[in-house]
Specification:
The protein is an alpha+beta fold. The protein has helices spanning 9-18, 56-63, 107-121, 130-135, and strands at residues 2-6, 22-27, 33-38, 40-43, 46-51, 66-72, 76-79, 88-104, 137-153. It has a single domain (2-153), classed as Electron Transport, Fmn-binding Protein, Chain A (Pnp Oxidase, Chain A), CATH 2.30.110.10. The chain is built from four helices and nine strands. Strand 7 (76-79) and strand 8 form a beta hairpin. The longest helix has 15 residues, at 107-121. The radius of gyration is 18 Å and the shape is globular. 20% of the residues are buried.
């Protein structure tokens, strides 16, 4: 099986849109890594996330807003020969992105972000009440660097 590196934006965005969870990695002040799974929205190289107003991640990001985001499509088991264990692999695409979290405070921008997050998971249109929008913490991450790999592709493909 081969691993392919993808650099075209369309393939990268397609992979991100296929994912249901974004893992967000950050580093605490003592150097301890901290990774959390989050729901997300995506538009034009920006990832939107949401959380409560307080917590460990917020404390970390207020001191060090640098993050690493990881996306992985649902893996599908593939093989070249059903009796050869080493020929098995998981076919999936992985996108890793780096950026800095900016906490969005503008009400209309928060509303836009919440709509993008919900659009990622549903075709429905939602309404948000003002207190809920004001109470949510919106994380905005512009991707500064992105890598995309596809694992478990057949070496016989052209």
């Amino acid at each position: 099986m081969k691993t392919l590196v993808h650099t075209d934006q369309a393939t990268i965005e397609e992979a991100i849109r296929q994912c249901q969870v974004c893992s967000v990695g950050m580093v605490d002040t003592d150097g301890t890594p901290y990774v959390i799974p989050m729901s997300f929205g995506y538009e034009e190289n920006i990832v939107y996330l949401h959380s409560g107003q307080e917590g460990r991640s917020i404390s970390i990001l207020e001191k060090n807003p640098n993050v690493c985001l990881s996306f992985c499509t649902d893996p599908k088991i593939v093989f070249q020969h059903p009796q050869v264990a080493c020929s098995y692999s998981a076919h999936s695409k992985s996108v890793i992105g780096w950026g800095r979290v900016v906490f969005e405070e503008d009400y209309d921008e928060k509303l836009k972000a919440l709509n993008l997050i919900m659009q990622h998971y549903s075709d429905k249109t939602f309404e948000f009440n003002r207190p809920a929008v004001l109470n949510v913490k919106i994380w905005k991450v512009e991707l500064q660097k992105v890598t995309c790999k596809e694992f478990g592709t057949s070496p016989h493909k052209n």
